[in-house]
Amino acid sequence: MAHFAKLDENNVVLEVNVVHNNELLDENGVEQEQRGIDFLVAWSGGYLHWKQTSYNGNFRKNYAAIGGTYDAVRDAFIPPKPSADATLDEATCQWIVPNQGGDSLGA
Hints:
Elements: E1 2-7, E2 13-19, H1 33-43, E3 50-53, E4 69-71, E5 76-78, E6 87-89, E7 94-96
Antiparallel strand pairs: 1-2, 1-3, 4-5, 6-7
């Protein structure tokens, strides 16, 4: 099964939909993202903003998370920012949250 993120006009992930792999196959039996997008545009009544996401992170860095964003420059999904002081790891497109004073083990 293929997964596609529905994006708003600011590339925020609104939802993730599953499409059967057969819908992505071209005339040579090769999966094509555009075929999945075309299927979803028809299925949704004309909604145009879709991007394929990988459940296991094989491409576009991360699986699309509702409330996260798609960054076209990085061609990556970025999860929602967990805190104001979090910084983005450019290699993984994951947020790094600074340690807030140690852990609670043994306290």
